[in-house]
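Fold it.
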Amino acid sequence: MFVAPVNTESLLAQAQAETLYLNLIEQINKDFNLANEGIDFPLSISPDELKIQLHEKVYRMIQYKFAEYLNLLYIIDVPENEIKQLDESDLVILAEQVAFLILKREWQKVWFRNYYK
């Protein structure tokens, strides 16, 4: 049964433990490219580096490409109610929370695809 991770570290640890980390990276790359936001994380990227780079990408999109950011959230299918619950007072923290929501949704897709194949 799918149990949603509570933070980025536990999500990435779970992905590695279930040997689905590479699938997670591929899913992230695929959805970002579908949203015309070229991102190409190498499959060799460490979990810590993935977390940092995804956070930076989301931060830049919120600041400079807001329409594209909204489109990305739509394509990835991040739940709107979860986005609305976030604290928007600090942009850095907001970007970190959104990056986690993106990772959580992408992980959900990968996990279900693997579990029900």
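Residues 11 and 17 are 10 Å apart (CA to CA).
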